[in-house]
Amino acid sequence: MSSTEISGSAGTRVTSAAPAPVDDRSSVGWRLFAGTMILIGAAFNAIDGIVGVANAKYFKEVSGQSVHLLLTGSLRAWGWVAIGLGVLMAVAGAAIFFGATWARVLGVVAAGINMIFQLAYLAHYPFWSFTIILVDVLVIYGLVVHGERPQSQPDVVLTES
Hints:
The chain is mostly helical. 61% of the residues lie in helices and 9% in strands. The longest helix is centred in the first third of the chain and has 31 residues, at 24-54.
């Protein structure tokens, strides 16, 4: 928001270059939403990973086809990676609630990696993978667009003689 005042015959102009007021409730709400969504994504990854490690045949039986992953042919290896991503996302999600900046960065990175990870599984369970990718997109949106913002900028004063 900008305001200009001209006073007297000397032509003094004072300009306030403060940004438009930020609704702190909205940004806090989005951060809480992103923290909640990343915890949900972490739980989904952990469950998928545990199933992949404990009973790799389950995915083959449910899909009715053989499962060939892009980077590895082992569903157990895929399961361990899913568990690791789930733990990483859970740590980031818990720390987001405390307002840690590093947690927002970790959350964006973990959600981005999880999106790529889910793309490798898209051919076998497209609806499930797409749902997880959508959760990751919402997490990134909530953390990047509605992260902490500066409270205010200093006023700029211009004087013309």
